[in-house]
Specification:
The chain has 177 residues and is of the alpha+beta class. The chain has three helices and seven strands, in the order αβββββββαα. A four-stranded antiparallel β-sheet has the order 4-3-6-7, with no helix packed on it. It is elongated.
Length: 177
Amino acid sequence: MRLEQCLPLLGLLLCAVGTTAQQGKWEFLVEISGTTVTITCPLEDEDIQWELSGKTQDTRERKFIIKDHDSTPANLSCSWGSEKRQLYLNAKVCATCEELDALTVAGIITADLLITLGVLILVYYFSKGRKGRASSAGDSRPRGQKMQRPPPVPNPDYEPIRKGQREVYAGLAPRAI
């Protein structure tokens, strides 16, 4: 393989490895279900101390659960010893929302596309049969080549000059100075 062909592949590989190495080590995991928000601390140790908006919480696990969250922004931190990670939580929650997984969304989109395709095919086949039929709406005008054009409407402003009417236009001749 030539060098020009390998460089894009190498760049893509470096990007994938770089994002995989960074992901998960320093990031919080936030899960939202209804009005419950679950946050997982990126620190791997147990006996973690949580602070929510400056108040120390009594839980010591890696996962911190906020029940009946009211969608107000909050500063959250988890710490173990001298290590401390902070998170600004601005999670929008609602009690009456329904959760949809990816398979349901894909099914809805596929069904919509199939229904649209079906309607398109029906319109095509029903309009295809009407090409050769005459109109049944009582239209008695002939169509196509049999139709004759009416004579043009005479316009008195552009009538041709007749022999006996030259004096009307005689005043338009150029005058000698």
